[in-house]
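User: Please predict the structure of the protein below. I'd like the answer in structure-token form so I can feed it into my own downstream comparison script.

Assistant: Understood. Taking the following sequence of 207 residues as input:
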Amino acid sequence: MDIFEFDKNQYVEKLCGVDEAGRGPLAGDVFAAAVILPKDCYIEGLNDSKKLSEKKREKLYDEIIEKAESYCIATASVEEIEQVNILQATYLAMTRAVQGLNISPDLVLIDGNRMPPQLNIEARCVVKGDATSASIAAASILAKVARDRYMLEIAKEYPEYLFEKHKGYGTKAHYEAIDKYGECKVHRHSFLKKYYEKLEEKNKAKK
């Protein structure tokens, strides 16, 4: 069964797919997108955003926006991530994305195995949904591209961290920049605690 057939087999008029981007990075907001595609919609090459090149995602992003009956991209800030933890912040972003649609969906499909508790609408989780459902795949692309673009803007403000290359993920270059320059206001301090603890242990061992 392909991803478009999966969506048709949900037997609802307005099906909404939801996915997030940016749960794992050390810096930046977490993004989520909600997408309602027309029932007869077909978008060639639509797939899990992680399986696509950046160039392909950019192309599909424009096509999804053009063809979607409704879509919304929402975020939860670094401050919210620090206040309530990344899981709860992801729920916030997902809920905001669904609430931002200008059409009320009959069913919401959430990528993964955890349901945002604030969603007051019929919904279910789909494990590996971004490779199973066309609407979730579309949401994964919108969230990923939107977040990458946001990180490119952040990179202009903080060029020393090379955000344009790693998008905030914990690469060697990113950790080296943190060691050299410390944290900036878009870093998630809670994500760096273990790293600092390991550094402290290494420094103690050297002494």
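That's the full token string. The chain has two domains: 3-153, 159-206.
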